[in-house]
Amino acid sequence: MTAEFEGPRTAIVTGGAKRIGAELSRALAADGWHVLIHYNHSAAEAEALAARIGGSTVRADLADPRASATIMAALDGLPPPRLLVNSASRFVLDSADDFTVDGWDAHLDINLRAPALISRAFAAKAGRGLIVNMLDAKLAAPNPDFFSYTISKMGLAGLTELTARAFAPGIRVCGIAPSVTMVSGPQSRANFDAVHDRNALGRGVDVAEIVGALRFLIATPTITGQTIVLDGGQRFLSLARDVQFLPPSGDGQFLPPSGDGQFLPPSGDGQFLPPSGDGQFLETE
Ligand SMILES: NC(=O)c1ccc[n+]([C@@H]2O[C@H](COP(=O)([O-])OP(=O)(O)OC[C@H]3O[C@@H](n4cnc5c(N)ncnc54)[C@H](OP(=O)(O)O)[C@@H]3O)[C@@H](O)[C@H]2O)c1
Predict the structure, then answer these.
(1) Is 203 within a domain?
(2) Coil, helix or strand for 82?
(3) Is residue 214 assigned to a domain?
(4) Which of 68, 130, 195, 252 could make a disulfide contact with 270, Cβ separation 3.0–4.6 Å?
């Protein structure tokens, strides 16, 4: 451990009871951190994980602006806070055509306002340490599916940049932006299993790589305001829609988000185009 994180120390992991958050909680505990596992609905998973890794838990609904105060209060009696991982996230399908005020507000409140409030409180309380925001690789090649979610993560990327500047020199702020790592939202298992092959590197992200990125950020005291993108080169495909609407195999046409059986037109369908108009990559007679 670098001098930055010597001695007893606490890591807060929001949404730390399940899935990626739980993997991060487990890895941090293995590295000697006391982990404060934040959760909302997953009480049983949070308590079981805390018992297994010797951590603590705190429940707070991040839609409530008082959540950051609740989380900070739970630090009382724990080793000093040195790491905050903003991993909790709302991920509900909507589009630029149909998003609602309630859906917009919920995504922005949970995915952006809450990390902003918790980051500010953490920086004031910790004085020194690291904040890691879980972003999304789709920001590197945006498409308008999951519209409110994507806007919220774009805001979180901005928060990463601004708080890195605002909280220096004591606090570093970085992001980790994976592409699809676990089956999420309305995605089918068949789609999840199939889409990774289409990435430029022919593979998808393993959660162990997210753990590795977090460990790199912790161990590297000169990095701040930077985001590590883990996407197997998916951004090079410049997909017009979210990858989960690609069919498991076939011609790259997108499936509609609802099951009405219609295929959307194949424009911008993820097929590779020739790099220029000079025809040298096109078949000749
Ligand atoms: N999974 C992927 O493939 C993927 C891809 C790209 C980016 N990411 C990002 O990586 C992070 C972790 O992904 P994930 O798939 O593990 O996340 P997730 O399962 O979608 O959500 C993580 C946790 O967020 C918590 N949460 C949601 N709404 C909340 C609220 N109102 N108040 C408090 N907590 C709330 C939930 O806690 P409870 O269960 O306790 O309610 C949930 O378990 C997210 O930020 C996500 O955007 C994930």
Answers:
(1) yes
(2) strand
(3) yes
(4) 252
Q: How many domains does the chain have?
A: 1
Question: Has residue 262 been placed in a domain?
Answer: no
The residue range of the domain holding 39 is: 3-245
> Ligand 1 atom closest to Cα of 41?
41
Check if 20 has its Cβ closer than 6 Å to any atom of ligand 1: yes
Q: Ligand 1 centroid vs 34 CA: distance in angstroms?
A: 21
CA dihedral 92, 116, 180, 19 (to 10 degrees): -90
C-alpha 185: how far from its chain's center? 14
The pLDDT assigned to 99 comes to 98
Q: Is 209 in the pocket of ligand 1 (CB under 6 A)?
A: no
User: For the chain, how many residues are written?
Assistant: 285
Closest residue by Cα to atom 16, ligand 1, is: 20
End-to-end CA distance of the chain: 63
The edge-to-edge listing of strands for the beta sheet with 129-134 is 56-59, 34-39, 10-13, 81-86, 129-134, 171-178, 227-230
Residue type at 123 in one-letter notation: A
Average pLDDT by stretches of 10, the chain with 285 residues: 88 98 98 98 98 98 98 98 98 97 98 99 98 98 97 98 98 98 88 88 96 98 98 93 77 61 38 43 40
Q: Residue with the nearest Cα to atom 14 of ligand 1?
A: 20
Q: Hey, is 222 helix, strand or coil?
A: coil
Task: Look at residue 84 and tell me if it is in a domain.
Answer: yes
CATH number for the domain spanning 229: value is 3.40.50.720
